[in-house]
Design brief:
With about 130 residues, the chain is mostly beta strands. The chain has 2 domains: about 1-50; about 50-129, OB fold (Dihydrolipoamide Acetyltransferase, E2P) (Beta Barrel), CATH 2.40.50.840. Helix content is about 5%, strand content about 45%. The strands form 2 sheets. Strands 4-5-6-8-7 form a 5-stranded mixed beta barrel. About 15% of the residues are buried.
Amino acid sequence: MPIQRFYPHIPQRYRLEATKCKKCGKIHFPPRQVCNACGSRELEPYKLAEEGEIITYTVVYTPPDDFKTKKPYVVAIAKMDDGAKLTAQVADCTPDEVEIGKRVRVVFRKINAEGKSGIIEYGYKFVLI
């Protein structure tokens, strides 16, 4: 069975669910069962902020086979408004439009399609705001 069939059951992929330590407040994405800052096991579900700021990025000119038609594209790390850091492709723009410090919003988009069967994999990307 293709792994894409399991993706809807992965909360962090579709709902940006993380965990937040009740003891020290650290946010973990993807979710963890033990806080890596203080060792506490008291973590609660946490919905990540949907907006943030690009802190670094790269332009991909030589992509893997599944993404060759999309080149060049930008992959960025953004510090979200709640302090969590996410990595995602920056969509709907040219590489020249992306800069450190620009604001982004998380959106859900098609990432890939599985061969002839057409199973579509969705995930999050950033768009400039």
